[in-house]
Every structure is written in structure tokens, then in C-alpha cells.
Amino acid sequence: MGHASSVCRKVIRDSHEFHALREIVLADVVSTLRQEFSLGGRMKYRIALHESEEGYSVSVPGLPGCWSQGTTEAEAIENIRDAIREYLSVVDDQLRGENIREVEVTV
After folding, report:
1. Which DSSP symbol is given to 54?
2. CA torsion through residues 14, 18, 20, 24, sign
């Protein structure tokens, strides 16, 4: 899902580009959901953990907008696990009835 996060960093000026980007990101997330279920519900995600005076914030670069926080590192990591599950559930609901395709990319 690394390519989705790099694509999401680009500035989108045109609504057609936005819809095309949305399709790429959503298709990538659906592919991840399918892989997750085929692997018995276990997937690994890269996370970015940041320490501050208030505790820890954590995000998932491959899932735009997916972030959480915690007082301790362990709490932040457990919270991001919950956030990832909720994120994927919402995406799955939003894609019901959509024409979804998978694209394989070699990096």
C-alpha cells in the first residue's frame, strides 16, 4: 500500500483527478481487505510513531487519515490497531456495490 500513500501526497487540483485517485486508494484498500481475510485476518502495517510531551501519536502511512494516540507507546499501538480495523470496516461498507478491480505493482 506504499504507492497509495505517495499518490495521496500529491496536490489534487482537478475533481477528475480526485475521483481517479479515490478509485486507486479504495481499490488498494479493498485488495488489502481481501488479503487480510485470505491470511486468516492478520496483516502487517507500517506505522509512524511520534513521541511528544503528551504521549504518543501514531499514523498509518498506507491508510490516509488513519491515526490514533496514547499516553504510552503500548497504548498508542493498541489504539492504532483498533483504528485500522475501524478504517477497513468503513472502507468495506463504502465500496459495497462498486466495480472494484485489483492492480498488482512490483516495487
Report:
1. T
2. positive
Q: Are 50 and 56 in contact (CB under 8 A)?
A: yes
Grid look-up 496536490 returns 11
Residues 6 or more apart whose CB falls under 8 angstroms from that of 69 comprise: 54, 55, 56, 57, 58, 76, 79
Whole-number average pLDDT of the chain? 77
Reported as a single tens digit per residue, the pLDDT across 6-39 is: 333 333 444 455 555 566 666 666 666 555 554 4
Q: Could you tell me the pTM of the whole model?
A: 0.59
Q: Structural domain tally of the chain?
A: 1
Look at residue 106 and tell me if it is in a domain.
no
